[in-house]
Design a protein that fits this description.
6 helices, four-stranded mixed sheet, 2 domains, alpha+beta
Length: 171
Amino acid sequence: MVEIHEGWFEDTLGRISPTAQFCLAHLDADTYSSTKTALRYLLPRLVPGGAVVLDDCLFYGAIGVLQAAEEEIGKDLHLHLGPKTQAFAFPKGDPQPGRRAPIWRTLGGRRYDVADLLARPDYIELVAWEGAIYRNRAEGYHDYLQLISGRPDLPPDSHRVTAGIGLLRRR
């Protein structure tokens, strides 16, 4: 059973049955206080083997998500790096006792297990493809800056500036 509760955590959590239990919680909190509020409510109701997904916890604009998770779950929190800027954890035990051995990577002084991601070659290919797209868009913005600054050193194919910006607007 899935229920989506749109709104601020402090406003919506009280509407959930006090006897509710969770096997999966996808927290898209983006801030320290929201993450802390959600985890304080969620953790006592999380079933053994239940997962918590911290959406955007590695995104530069999401302030304090990891700090709140470490304070509520513990400093020794085993975070599995998920797609893009997500991470997930099993605060009450991993339901897969035979999970691959961790492969640790460090980012910003924090260790992440990337074993699940590295087991998916299609994911590595996707990230490489997206990286190429973002590099191309960054070049387009450089050319755009040149254009609006009146600098004469625009490349001959500078027409790609408007095409790249149009792509960004549609997303």
